[in-house]
Automatic annotation (TrEMBL):
<dbReference type="Pfam" id="PF13416">
    <property type="entry name" value="SBP_bac_8"/>
</dbReference>
<keyword id="KW-0813">Transport</keyword>
<dbReference type="GO" id="GO:0030313">
    <property type="term" value="C:cell envelope"/>
</dbReference>
<dbReference type="InterPro" id="IPR006059">
    <property type="entry name" value="SBP"/>
</dbReference>
<dbReference type="GO" id="GO:0055085">
    <property type="term" value="P:transmembrane transport"/>
</dbReference>
<protein>
    <submittedName>
        <fullName>Putative Carbohydrate ABC transporter substrate-binding protein, CUT1 family</fullName>
    </submittedName>
</protein>
<dbReference type="InterPro" id="IPR006061">
    <property type="entry name" value="SBP_1_CS"/>
</dbReference>
<keyword id="KW-0732">Signal</keyword>
<dbReference type="InterPro" id="IPR050490">
    <property type="entry name" value="Bact_solute-bd_prot1"/>
</dbReference>
<comment type="similarity">
    <text>Belongs to the bacterial solute-binding protein 1 family.</text>
</comment>
<feature type="signal peptide">
    <location>
        <begin position="1"/>
        <end position="20"/>
    </location>
</feature>
<keyword id="KW-0574">Periplasm</keyword>
Amino acid sequence: MLRKMVVGLLGLLLGTVALAANEPVTIDFWHAMSSGHQPNLQKLVDDFMAEYPYITVNLTYQGSYSALQGKINAAVAAGNLPTIAQVYENWVTPIQSLLYPIGPHMTAEEIADIIDGLVPSNTYNGVLTTVPFNKSIMVLYYNADLIPNPPTTWGEFYDLAKALTVDLDGDGKIDRYGTALRPAANPEQFLVFLDQAGGSILNDDWTAVTLCEEPGITAVEFCGRLIPYTFVTAEYISDHMGKVAMFIDTSAGYPYNSKAATNAGYTLGVAMLPAGPVNRSSMIQGTNLAVFNTPNQTQAQKDAAVLLARFLLRPENTAYWAMKSGYQPVTKSAYQLPAWKEFVAANPYQQAMSDQMLLGFSQILHPNYGDMRTVLSTKFDEIMRGAVSPLDGLRAMCEEIEALLEY
């Protein structure tokens, strides 16, 4: 009981340190949320400023994710970083020494409430440094008019993909594929199969490539079996909805996939991913929030930015953001809120996304992960297009990733 009281008092102190000072402070928040999402983010920021009236947040749209990354890199060189920004994990690894860790200024309850699969991807050198923000999870989309019961295992997925790949008009060309993959654009689809087989790219301390071990072989051979029944494209699968029976995509893609399905004249279903040999996991994607610890930021600004990050993590706020944006809540307690449960009841497709999110995993934090991802996407594309055998493609992945271990 005493420990709980101490933790609770610490939380109150953490939330009111800057408030007690009551000195006006302005922070810059760089983001990549375009016109569809920006009003909802602005609403949350406005609510924050209403609660902390001495803090002014300059919310600044920096364009696409690539544009945001470029501006952050330029700001690193110029020594003029914002106070807080959206970041992908692989943007952070080369500049983690410039970050102001958020976790040490959070309560134990706040940290424990973050979805388990999101903690490792925000932890650097054993410290929770960044926190999750806009996150989506990969789920299974399917033509409910063709598939009344979505597959729950790899075996069922393969059988359906094979059965639903057909030449409808008898001209010798496939008109509808059982499934689709975007290997060049979304190697995360392969990483889902790898994780579900119990595998990983590297060992825990990043000293060895484990991709070519038995789980990796299992995953790539499964992909190889799917080749004859897979529509392979670098474009969004929603652009080809009429020729695909089922596919793996992010939850954030639901609005586009739903509209495309309607245009194609069929009912879109959403389900959890089929389970692999080891688990039913899925890969979480999206950005985190980072606070910068550079000379151009005062302690008051860093404190204010931490308060903002913690504010956005509150269950009611991450749930609001998810309901308005199509992303998923990033804390466990958000899924228990009456408002979220009512939202899921009104939008049944969200049930599978909610269930899948709690089984999510994130990318590794190796400083060269961006280059490793390029290797994965290139070789996975070659495999699925038949340019190289699955096992040869896997071996090539491992050789090229081996060369990227040093940093």
